[in-house]
Amino acid sequence: MNIKYPNGKTFKQSDSTSKLTNKKVSYSNRGMTLEEDVSETNEYYLTNGIAVIHKKPTPIQIVKVDYPSRSAAVVREAYFKQPSTTDFNGVYKGKYIDFEAKETKNKTSIPLQNFHPHQIEHMSQVIKQQGICFVIIRFSSLGDVFFIDARHIIKCWKEMDKGGRKSIPYLFIQEVGHVIKLGYQPLLDYLKIIDEHYLND
Amino acid sequence: MNIKYPNGKTFKQSDSTSKLTNKKVSYSNRGMTLEEDVSETNEYYLTNGIAVIHKKPTPIQIVKVDYPSRSAAVVREAYFKQPSTTDFNGVYKGKYIDFEAKETKNKTSIPLQNFHPHQIEHMSQVIKQQGICFVIIRFSSLGDVFFIDARHIIKCWKEMDKGGRKSIPYLFIQEVGHVIKLGYQPLLDYLKIIDEHYLND
């Protein structure tokens, strides 16, 4: 069942974690989506003057808008468009930051169909412009969160195009990625990885 | 009247420039909005591997979505939200680029109400993170386009809050801004100003 919290977020309570009477929510299994965790982390970064990173709004093709008198315009017909870029971008210490957040329930790999061709193309373009581009992947069944440089994702995608495998193995991500440990504030301190692996020269 | 072009853009033909029979469109008065000009410039930058700069989608609060069988989800009720950031951002030579494009028909100043408080706050945050933040302003009646560092806009905004004037004078913009000359490809080469005034050290 879903519980609405005052902050507007929906807490998806799974049967295995807690009963309704049990108010104490297990931290490692709060049922928040990866996107929500990342957005909360970004809010922390913003509030504390650490970085300015936002999620881009979902692109929508608007077909029909009503303008009722005395009230706000109402969109009456619109369709979801496929994003042409990644979901998150912003600035950290003057550097351009660009990433996508994906989660899978699979335990051994993440399907490459999680990424659109446009996103892969966008990642290549960002890297060419010396932006810092990566993907945050959560294996929700395992509870593991990884930071993987977009170059690895692009490489796997290109190999798939040549007949290679259609997913990225967990073991490969473990090998080339960096673990993002779940913290308290911020929840997912991915900028720490940027400090250690991108800005330390 | 409006003419729809194959690229989906609307060409606003003004009575003073040309008649319907006159297919030759005056370059200096093509009737394209500043936003369209900037987007076309960004497309040129992207295609030529110069920079990766996109307009963010308009943020929309979705209330009701229909899922007709066998077809795409249809948004049936949604409202426009006020953007919490500027419209354009991206990466150029590793640097974070962030800006807003505004045009006015006024000839002597641009009203500060063109900017939302959230946008002013966002610009301050970007500058703190050493991002390159600016505004492109077109005085459409005069045909002049300026590149102004966001610091000047923020300063004017703060002065307005203290009882100062509610608009930014053209003469001030002329003094502190940089002229963006209308070109052929790209249309509005604003990165040239960044090369000259931000990256030349």
From TrEMBL, chains A, B:
Binds 1 Mg(2+) ion per subunit. Gene3D superfamilies: 3.40.1350.10. It catalyses: Endonucleolytic cleavage at a junction such as a reciprocal single-stranded crossover between two homologous DNA duplexes (Holliday junction). Its cofactor is Mg(2+). It comes from the Bacteria. Pfam families: RecU. Residues 10-20 have a biased composition (Polar residues). Belongs to the RecU family. Endonuclease that resolves Holliday junction intermediates in genetic recombination. Cleaves mobile four-strand junctions by introducing symmetrical nicks in paired strands. Promotes annealing of linear ssDNA with homologous dsDNA. Required for DNA repair, homologous recombination and chromosome segregation. This is Holliday junction resolvase RecU. It comes from Lottiidibacillus patelloidae. The lineage of its organism: Bacteria, Bacillati, Bacillota, Bacilli, Bacillales. The gene is recU.
